[in-house]
């Protein structure tokens, strides 16, 4: 996998921050004693690896079970895609051997471990070390974009061990269109949609870019972010949002790519033994879009939704990264937030009464995306090398659990009143379709009494204008499925009139009154 573009590199033991950020960094410093930090790091490493350590009691989803996990109604499972990168220089120097096999046709991932049982996993799509950026985007970003432009909230987030290729997959290489990541490609395709729809739809787009560093929120579009207080709030109309976060209006893909570049230059990275340019924070780009059909004076077509494009920091083992000082403290914070993310996913899979979203800022911001109302796609990145087998297995277990979560999708209107109006309009549409269905069914018969015809013609606004509802239901029930019906008794309708007996097969020749109704 080619290296990621360089962004604010720092030494292996010291995190460089701007003067305006120093206040925030100082406030977020972990415990000062190295002993407590090492104890915390070891504990967190055990938590991250616990899925692999307890694998004997966990059964992965089989191929047939996964095929049967189809979406139902407005519910859809989190989509999961796995990407394996090529061997890197470090792994080749260690003479590492391949331990993962990707089978594209079956969407299968097989991982081999020394002296342990092999494990198979199945996902929505899988990519080996030869996959291109465009191939990955077509299976991820394009799929999500198709739902996003319809008005659904959406999320794409990348998860994996440090150095597994997450930032390469999400960001790619600046200035090289062939090697662009999911973010840049999504931006270009989004504005392609805006251009195609401009004649019939008014579209407004805004964007924000933030990072969560040492459990502190920093605005990547604000050079003085360290001086600002940011709080996570929840609102019935806005959903989950952050106070004081800069949201820039966007009119072209060029402007949005400039925001990506601006955020990348401020994002915190550092060097470890596992990764020369390790992301030390979780980066979240949020794009908010408002749409309303032109000519819609009432605004009933209004949609307001957002997408979060998330590049998570990688899980770490101190023994592998050999991190010390600030790198070690950062790794502890990263593992803590990822551990909390895993706890949320486990709670949702087990359908417990309490889901610990509030245990970290990351899980609070992803609440709408995991178990909420978003169309969510998880990109899992893994190393092919056996020296990383346990970390890769832990990552695959995480992904296997995540794909079992169901989100309840709905078009986001941004206003509860518009949500209710849209709901009522949909009910009206369904009722009208049902009336048409009944009319078509009854039209199969040769003759229907005039009051019934009149009632059918006006049923969408005044069912029962000529007859009562119970009488209308009785007539439908009597007629349903019968090829020949002879009516020999008068029918008394709500208007007080009595209609003489009718032979529905031969209305010109009324049958003799026999005081009964016969099916011939």
From TrEMBL:
Single GO biological process annotation from the record: mitotic spindle organization
Gene Ontology molecular function: ATP binding; microtubule binding; microtubule motor activity
InterPro entries the record matches: Kinesin-like_fam, Kinesin_motor_dom, Kinesin_motor_dom_sf, P-loop_NTPase
UniProt record similarity statement: Belongs to the TRAFAC class myosin-kinesin ATPase superfamily. Kinesin family.
Species of origin: Naegleria gruberi
Biased composition regions of type Low complexity, renumbered to the chain: 9-39, 49-67
Disordered: annotated segments: 1-74, 501-520
An annotated GO cellular component: microtubule associated complex
PROSITE patterns documented for this protein: KINESIN_MOTOR_2 (PS50067)
Annotated protein name in UniProt: Predicted protein
């Amino acid at each position: 996998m080619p290296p990621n573009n360089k962004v604010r590199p720092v030494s292996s033991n010291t995190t460089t921050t701007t003067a305006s950020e120093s206040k925030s960094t100082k406030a977020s410093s972990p415990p000062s004693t190295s002993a407590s930090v090492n104890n915390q790091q070891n504990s967190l490493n055990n938590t991250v690896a616990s899925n692999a350590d307890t694998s004997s009691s966990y059964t992965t989803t089989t191929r047939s079970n996964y095929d049967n996990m189809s979406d139902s109604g407005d519910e859809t499972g989190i989509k999961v895609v796995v990407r394996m990168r090529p061997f890197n220089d470090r792994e080749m120097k260690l003479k590492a051997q391949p331990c993962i096999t990707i089978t594209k046709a079956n969407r299968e991932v097989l991982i081999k471990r020394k002296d342990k049982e092999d494990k198979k996993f199945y996902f929505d799509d899988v990519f080996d070390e030869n996959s291109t950026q465009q191939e990955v985007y077509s299976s991820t970003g394009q799929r999500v974009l198709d739902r996003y432009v319809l008005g659904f909230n959406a999320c794409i987030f990348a998860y994996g061990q440090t150095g597994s290729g997450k930032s390469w997959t999400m960001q790619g290489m600046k200035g090289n269109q062939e090697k662009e990541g999911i973010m840049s490609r999504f931006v270009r395709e989004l504005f392609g949609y805006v251009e195609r729809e401009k004649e019939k739809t008014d579209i407004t787009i805004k964007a924000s870019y933030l990072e969560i560093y040492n459990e502190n929120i920093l605005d990547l579009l604000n050079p003085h972010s360290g001086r600002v207080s940011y709080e996570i709030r929840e609102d019935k109309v806005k959903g989950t949002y952050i106070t004081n976060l800069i949201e820039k209006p966007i009119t072209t893909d060029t402007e949005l790519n400039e925001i990506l570049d601006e955020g990348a230059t401020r994002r915190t990275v550092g060097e470890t033994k596992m990764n020369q340019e390790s992301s030390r924070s979780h980066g979240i780009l949020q794009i908010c879009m408002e749409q309303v059909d032109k000519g819609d004076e009432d605004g009933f077509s209004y949609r307001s939704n957002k997408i979060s494009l998330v590049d998570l920091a990688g899980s770490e083992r101190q023994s592998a990264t050999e991190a010390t000082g600030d790198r070690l403290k950062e790794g502890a914070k990263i593992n803590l937030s990822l551990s909390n993310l895993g706890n949320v996913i486990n709670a949702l899979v087990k359908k417990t009464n309490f889901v610990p979203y509030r245990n970290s800022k990351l899980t609070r911001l992803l609440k709408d995306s995991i178990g909420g109302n978003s169309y969510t796609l998880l990109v899992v990145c893994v190393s092919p090398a056996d020296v990383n087998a346990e970390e890769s297995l832990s990552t695959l277990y995480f992904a296997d659990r995540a794909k079992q979560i169901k989100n309840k999708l709905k078009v986001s209107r941004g206003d509860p009143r518009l949500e209710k109006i849209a709901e009522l309009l949909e009910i009206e549409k369904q009722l009208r379709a049902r009336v048409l269905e009944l009319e078509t069914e009854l039209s199969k018969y040769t003759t229907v009494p005039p009051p019934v015809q009149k009632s059918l013609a006006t049923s969408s606004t005044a069912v029962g204008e000529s007859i009562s509802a119970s009488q209308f239901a009785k007539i439908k029930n009597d007629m349903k499925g019968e090829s020949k019906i002879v009516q020999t008794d008068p029918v008394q309708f709500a208007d007080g009139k009595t209609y003489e007996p009718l032979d529905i097969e031969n209305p010109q020749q009324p049958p003799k009154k026999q005081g009964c109704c016969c099916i011939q």
